[in-house]
Amino acid sequence: MNFDRIDGAGYPLAFKVRGGRRAATVAGIAPARDVFRVEARTMGGHQKEVVVSEGADGATWRLTSDEGAILKGTDLAPFPLAFYNAGLHADFVNRALAVARARRIPLAITGITLNNQYFFNGSFFRGTGEGSAEAVTVQVRARSAAPRDEVMRVLEAALAASPAHAAMALPQVNTFALYVNGRRCPVTRVAASTAADEHDPFKAHAGAPAPLAGAAPAYEIVERILRPLPEGGPPAMPAEGRVPITIPGESVLRDATGIVATTVAPRSPGAAFRITCDERPDGGEAPSGLAMIAAGIAFCYMTQFTRYIEHRKHKVRAIRFVQTLPFTLAGDIAAGTQKGGLEPVDTHVFLHAEEPDEVMQNLLEVAENTCYLHAALRSSLPGRVELDLQAQ
Length: 392
Prior knowledge:
Shape: globular
Number of helices: 8
Helix content: 10-25%
């Protein structure tokens, strides 16, 4: 078995590693705070692996990511922004169904369209590049016997109650720690973490993650959908100027109570992926949308490290992260005052390298500047809802 390739062990692209209780922020009944934890590593090229824990006592999932041919990846697993898009879909559905239940309003969601728009600005080669993100519109197709204005109030309350959408709506000053060859170094170019030292995650584990026995889900969590490549091969990723990156996503409910399947098909050549989340109050067959949000942020940041290391030919042998994301809920769902939140994301970066600390500091800063999801986290990008309503 080759555990340094996504397909090297013969495991699915995503699976449950450990069982646990439903995180209170996912169940969504009362005020809550859960710290989701991500342990991430590069596996060679643009292949990456994370282990995501849904709060202190929640389930733990292994997810994998890759890039398409446009970034010279192998396209075997979803690109990072696909996870984030799927998380926004699924967590919104969670909140919409919960608000409708609390208000006793009949609601059947038949589909959602949600497109993310990002931009790369500046020059990647000169290290002046910056990522940016735009606010999203959640386009909901639904059936209900309730009046349209009541359904709209449910959906608007759901958007406000979603911690995933709060990650875009509420600007954060995220924090970072840097370890080089096992030694914690001062952080000067981004906001420094005040947290205690973390352990290098994949030194702390006895072995590579493996599927939990007897935990095979009814649905495959991540499915790869092949699409034909254009003649002449994929274009190169532009490294300078203002480059738009559009991530379109479509979701349906595989189960009316909260199994959400999102298909993300990038505008660039390469495979599409169907990502399934379990948002049922008593669920646990697939990761929650919040777990996908956490994974997507780690994957995206790691991609920027890898790209810049490749370009500058830095002697870096391994990249690993520990990332914590405190998701919150406040207010009352039935009264319509529930608010989702996300406190600053804390990322500890472990690098093994033959380079001076100054080079590693620069990597930390450049990767944060170019990461599209860290751009979304530090921006104020409140979303909006559109409704296509049919009578039930």
